[in-house]
Design goal:
The chain contains ten helices and no strands. The protein is mainly alpha-helical. It has a domain of 140 residues: Tetracycline Repressor, domain 2 (Orthogonal Bundle). Helix 2 runs antiparallel to helix 3, helix 2 crosses helix 7 and helix 5 runs antiparallel to helix 6.
Length: 218
């Protein structure tokens, strides 16, 4: 065999893809992938039925990789929930900060929330599924309370701008979170209902409470 032929075969061997070996990802990229896979598994199976084995298999990694990123299933679930809470907080708060009449702001907030439900159905499913008590008390419940408090601050600022007592703001904020969670879950199962329809109908319901404030301001 000539030296040229030998070098050619060696080059072809080096260029052949290696099968059966996992592709190494940068740590942050791997974490993002694991979060996406986990979100799908938790939304599909729920916390109790979901297993690290299932998540690892779907992600194409070993369980130690999951442990190195999240510690355990509890830590992984809370990471997924935290990500979705932050996303909801951002879109709803932004919708309430813009200019507009009070009813328009309510409608904007509901449209922003339902747009989140439409674009992130797995994330909303994770937030609205029954979570274990130890996580509801220390994780999911606390984060949802934090979301309601953030929204309450924005609503209170809007009420003050109307020259009214902002003390009802926490009630309205928790109503927005609760109604959004339950109607959003129903809407995921009824995709024939349009975004405009679910937004308008929910706004009309909520406005029956907010509307009293505007009447008092006249």
């Amino acid at each position: 065999m000539s030296r040229r032929s030998s070098r050619k075969r060696e080059k072809e061997h080096r260029e052949k893809p290696v099968t059966g070996r996992r592709e190494r990802m940068p740590r942050e990229e791997r974490r993002k992938q694991l979060m996406e896979v986990s979100r799908g598994v938790f939304s599909e199976l729920g916390y109790e039925a979901a297993s690290l084995e299932e998540i690892a298999e779907r992600a194409g990694v070993s369980r130690p990789i999951l442990y190195s990123h999240f510690g355990d299933k509890h830590g992984l679930f809370e990471a997924v929930v935290s990500e979705q809470i932050a996303l909801v907080r951002e879109v709803v708060a932004q919708s309430l900060m813009g200019p507009g009449e009070p009813r328009e702001l309510v409608e904007n907030s509901m449209r922003a929330f339902f747009t989140y439900v439409r674009d992130h159905p797995d994330g909303h499913a994770v937030l609205t599924r029954d979570a274990p008590v130890h996580i509801s008390d220390s994780g999911l419940g606390v984060m949802l309370d934090g979301l309601a408090k953030d929204i309450a601050l924005v609503i209170a600022a809007q009420i003050r701008a109307m020259g009214l007592d902002p003390s009802p703001a926490p009630i309205y904020a928790n109503a927005l979170v609760g109604i959004g969670a339950h109607i959003g879950r129903w809407w995921r199962e009824h995709p024939d209902v349009s975004l405009d329809q679910v937004t308008t109908q929910t706004t009309d319901l909520i406005w029956s409470g907010f509307g009293g404030l505007t009447e008092a301001a006249k």
